[in-house]
Design brief:
The protein is of the alpha/beta class. 42% of the residues lie in helices and 18% in strands. The chain is globular and about 50 Å long.
Length: 281
């Protein structure tokens, strides 16, 4: 990874980012959803080429459905491989969940936290890595039910990473959301994650449905408790490269740059060893 802080590239941001003279200094890398760009030519093909030629880029998939009961979509995996190779993508990451069976469900469904599920999904991850000819990273996801679970979420995630021998995209907002919804200590969770497998972090906003129910939306600014947890994550793992996600209710670019700058500020504080919280302002 190039280090520093990045931003998720969304279609609504391509014009403002291309027109911004500040973007090359504000952003260390971009993250793209490959399914949104596969096989595109013309104007859209030129757009993605413009960014991949100017920024280090990572890819975060949506459709791999690694935990699905349906057969692995190897045609999709091969298309993604061509995209990664064509655009010199540094990392490919996906969600440790599933979103399809006979058709797409348009949501990330929770996997059962069981030994059987660990073996099943690890086999599929190894096959993806074989086709892609590279390691991938799986993301810890937000979930709202845990049917049939025989182990904790953190034990499940670490077991999958070890058995599949893959890496981790650690989503700090998802840790916070799950810690509220399922009543666990987010720091205990973080301390179980294998530092040597963390390739980069995600941070985002969410929606508060109730005092004890948060919904991961990527549609709002990052809140102070999540900023605090991000700083504690840096103190545990070091100032790991971090990506700001914003999928809708997208504000002016300068507001996003302000959140990206706050990521850098927290990274700098931890790198300096000062251990003081960076609040607003």
């Amino acid at each position: 990874m190039p280090g520093g802080a990045g931003l998720g590239l969304r279609r609504a941001l391509t014009g403002p980012l291309a027109d911004s003279s500040d973007a090359p200094t504000e952003l260390d890398f971009l993250e793209v959803v490959p399914e949104n760009w596969l096989g595109l030519g013309g104007r859209l093909g030129r757009e993605i080429r413009y960014f991949s030629e100017r920024y280090p880029m990572v890819a975060h998939g949506l459709s791999l459905s690694i935990g699905s009961p349906a057969p692995l979509d190897e045609k999709l995996v091969r298309s993604i491989k061509s995209f990664l190779d064509d655009h010199n993508i540094i990392h490919y990451t996906e969600h440790l969940s599933y979103c399809s069976d006979e058709g797409h469900l348009y949501d990330l469904m929770p996997m059962p936290f069981t030994a059987e599920a660990v073996s099943y999904v690890a086999d599929r991850i190894r096959r993806v890595q074989e086709i892609l000819e590279r390691r991938i990273a799986m993301e810890n996801v937000s979930y709202y039910a845990a049917p049939g679970s025989e182990m904790s979420e953190s034990a499940f995630v670490t077991a999958v990473l070890q058995e599949a021998d893959c890496d981790l995209l650690l989503d700090v907002n998802n840790v916070y959301v799950n810690s509220v919804n399922h009543r666990y200590d987010p720091l205990d969770y973080l301390r179980t994650m294998p530092a040597e497998r963390v390739v980069y972090l995600h941070v985002a906003g969410h929606y508060q449905e109730a005092e004890d129910l948060l919904v991961d939306t990527h549609g709002a600014p990052v809140i102070d408790p999540v900023w605090g947890l991000l700083q504690q994550t840096y103190e545990w793992f070091g100032p790991v490269s971090t990506l700001l996600e914003r999928d809708f209710n997208i504000p002016p670019l300068q507001e996003l740059f302000g959140e990206v700058a706050r990521i850098r500020q927290l990274q700098a504080v931890v790198a300096s060893g000062e251990r003081k919280y960076v609040g607003h302002g």
